[in-house]
Amino acid sequence: MTFKYIEMKKKVSLFLLFFTLFQFNLKAQAIEKIGKLNEETKKVILIYGSPDCHYCTDTKNILIENKIDFIFYDIDTDKAALNEMLAKLRKANINTNNLGIPVIDKYGEVFTNNTAFDDFIKKIIP
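Given the sequence above, the corresponding structure tokens read:
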């Protein structure tokens, strides 16, 4: 083997080592970011509803008045949000027939607007 070949092989090996370490670092950062996002969404109330639904609008306004953070998902236009909502309802053993909106995910507790509206709001804001 020639000296140039050995030097080139060392450079390639070093490059591959640094490239591999860089990839592991990127993956670790992505996992950390996902973990932080999951923690952040646990601190936010999720509302699944429709902008045309007055109960949905009233719920959002009450949360705004009480300075409670929330994320609103429009299930009329966002198919992924609709499917996510339905999956959460099934997991919580909530019947999806004759469903009342908004559907609330309060830190992992899922419930619907299936009672008097004041009682529904008390579930969100005790």
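The helical segments are 3-42, 54-65, 79-91, 117-124. Try to locate this feature in the token string yourself.
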